[in-house]
Design brief:
The protein is mainly beta and 178 residues long. It is built from 1 helix and 12 strands, in the order αββββββββββββ. The protein has one helix at 3-22; strands spanning 23-35, 44-56, 61-74, 77-81, 84-88, 91-107, 110-120, 130-142, 145-154, 157-159, 162-165, 169-177. Strands 1-2-3-6-7-8-9-12 form an 8-stranded antiparallel β-barrel. It has a two-stranded antiparallel ribbon with strand order 4-5. Strands 10-11 form a two-stranded antiparallel ribbon. The longest helix is centred in the N-terminal third of the chain and has 20 residues, at 3-22.
């Protein structure tokens, strides 16, 4: 192990050792996500349970790793194939996401946040089992409760054989901070 790697490892250990002192605690809640650009091929919504660990850098700036798991429901669709129109039945599957948002407290309980999120939806859409999104949102804390809303911009294409992008989504949630 050369000097730069040792130095980087030492910095990481110091930062990790200090994280418990910066943490303001866990949050848990529910979220619902619905796609905004409702095309016949991608009409879905989710209901998820979410858990997060808030790390306050100072009294205004924070980071929050998040993980969620829930149910994804895809409405019945008619897709064009090489053999003609094909009707696909509605499906309900299990999926989840992981993310890391950074935020700034602007005024009293009002917060603005942004960050990447990776969603895993196995088997819901044949070509969309893993998607990367970038979330932009607002949150408002009232005592221990927080109401959140975000716009989730998908940043990955579905697959090589599809020239459309995965639809953007809107997420609304309610959390309780412990």
């Amino acid at each position: 192990m050369n000097f730069p790697k040792k130095f980087f490892a030492l910095i990481c250990l110091i930062v990790l050792a200090g994280l418990p002192a910066l943490a303001s605690g866990f949050a848990a809640g529910i979220e619902s996500t619905i796609n905004i650009h409702r095309t016949s091929a991608d009409n879905y919504f989710t209901m998820s349970f979410v858990g997060a660990y808030r790390i306050d850098v100072n009294n205004r700036i924070y980071f929050m790793p998040e993980i969620s798991a829930g149910i994804i429901h895809v409405s019945p669709v008619v897709q064009e194939t090489m053999m003609g129109p094909e009707k696909k039945a509605a499906s309900t599957r299990f999926g989840g996401s992981i993310g890391l948002v950074g935020g700034v407290r602007i005024w009293r309980g009002l917060e603005v946040f942004t960050g990447p999120k990776m969603t895993i939806t196995p088997g819901v859409l044949q070509y969309d089992t893993l998607a990367q999104m970038w979330s932009f949102g607002l949150g408002y804390r009232i005592a221990r409760f927080e109401i959140r809303a975000s716009f989730d911009l998908h940043t990955t294409d579905r697959a090589i054989w599809h020239d459309k992008k995965t639809p953007d989504a809107c997420t609304v949630g309610l959390r309780y901070h412990f």
